Amino acid sequence: MPVTSRPQNAPALSHRERQVLAHIAAGLSHKQIARRLGISVHTVGTYLRRIRTKRTAPTVAHLIRLGVAEGVATSGGPN
């Protein structure tokens, strides 16, 4: 399943969705992401469901590839 950056008709990811995606692409767990962003683990899951609704990314590997395609994944991890 190819992952590309945003298809023309797909809604844009919100700032917070991009932050969560960057942390997932950096290899952080849901709990680590929640702690860093000051949100609950449940909220991290909600953001990931929203991302998956907007893009085709059924697995973590797809989310990582999506993070690269969206330009949020960097070699140094999220800021």
From TrEMBL:
PROSITE patterns: HTH_LUXR_2. It comes from Streptomyces alfalfae. Pfam families: GerE. Residues 6-71 form the HTH luxR-type domain. This is Helix-turn-helix transcriptional regulator. GO terms for biological process: regulation of DNA-templated transcription. Keywords: DNA-binding, Transcription, Transcription regulation. GO terms for molecular function: DNA binding. It comes from the Bacteria. InterPro entries: Sig_transdc_resp-reg_C-effctor, Tscrpt_reg_LuxR_C, WH-like_DNA-bd_sf. Gene3D superfamilies: Winged helix-like DNA-binding domain superfamily/Winged helix DNA-binding domain. The keyword Transcription regulation applies. The keyword DNA-binding applies.
